Amino acid sequence: MPNMKKLNHWIVCTGLLIGAGAAQAQLKVEISGVGSNQIPIAIAAFADESVAPAQISAIIRADLERSGAFKVIDAGATLSETSDINYGQWKSRGADALVVGSVQRLADGRYDVRYKLLDTIKSGQLSALGLAAQPQFTRLSAHKIADDIYQKLTGIRGAFATRIAYVTQSGREYRLEVADADGEGIQVALRSNEPIISPSWAPDGTKVAYVSFEKKKPVVYVQNLVTRERTIVANEKGSNSAPSWSPDGSRLAVALSKDGHTQVYIVNADGGGLRRLSNSNGIDTEPQFSADGASIYFTSDRSGGPQIYRMSVGGGEAKRVTFGGSYNISPRIASDGNTLAFISRRDGNFQLYALDLASGQETRLSDTASDESPSFSPNGKYIMYATESGRRKSLAVVSVDGRVKQRLTTQAGNIKEPTWGPFMK
What we know:
By secondary structure, the chain is mainly beta. It folds into two domains: 119 residues, TolB, N-terminal domain (Rossmann fold); 259 residues, Neuraminidase (6 Propeller), CATH 2.120.10. 11% of the residues lie in helices and 45% in strands. It contains four helices and 30 strands. A five-stranded antiparallel sheet has the order 1-29-28-27-26, covered by helices on one side. Strand 11 and strand 12 form a beta hairpin. It is globular.
């Protein structure tokens, strides 16, 4: 069967935390490209923000610039939420909106962050927030403000206050790391001298499922990122791989070879209730629940080469979804259920594609050649994936329209297998 050596490789290889201790190497974010119809916004320095561990206005500015949706204008001034505002002056400088705020250290050691979003065109207030946070969460306060700005001005929920997980490899050490969406605040969930692959966030953001080879074979674990408690979810005969969560967090879809060929199974989050879903003569792997939890997307070579299929969680007939190209793997579904991201091999390159499921329209989103492991942001507007540049693996982010691109790199080693966490409550 064509391409089976490569297919068997990714069956195994496709495919956390409070108080875990920070990793040493920080991620560096590089941005290229801009979105269409950027919103011009001025961000003033917050009054007294130097008292906080993090510069709030700078973090907000970086978040909005990274999104590609905003043209950020340097206010060149410090303005609090109580300052008198000359709206005409800001409008004349080309700003449709203005961000102002202040920071105050409270008696209990927390930092009170206040902000206002002002409409310079209508000379009025669009939004305001007051957030009190412990010192280690001042960055989070800034991300929440950026989220509020993004939502008020675009109508789409912002994802700056979310987290990502990924695997780094340095020498013989593998680390499962969790970081803020901007690459800051890195914490180590797991260290191992054996490979760690396929991390997948639980919908509530408190747990991550992953595959570890610490038992000298691939085994699926679920780890609580708060308590650090680990549960073995799948340790059947053969390979246990590619976990993904149901939208309600009660079950996982996994790929197991316990009965011969790798097939798709569903298992309860505590490891009970294992049920086989697919039943083909080929290899079925990389399962992903649909946004409504009623279907499973998965990769299968039943047609000769790997393609993406969809079937009901109750079983039954599988319907092929991808038809462009002869090698399509790693399905991921946007939160609205409308867009499928996947990796396609064409002209010898492995590249990120997006498929509009309603129209069948495909869009190539990357210009690199060794892409892997796509993962949607929880608002469905961006896709993070692993790629290779100069023989070093790094992470990249692209908007679903392909206009905005980011690259996240680290000097500490290879970084791969990204998964973007959910909105936090």
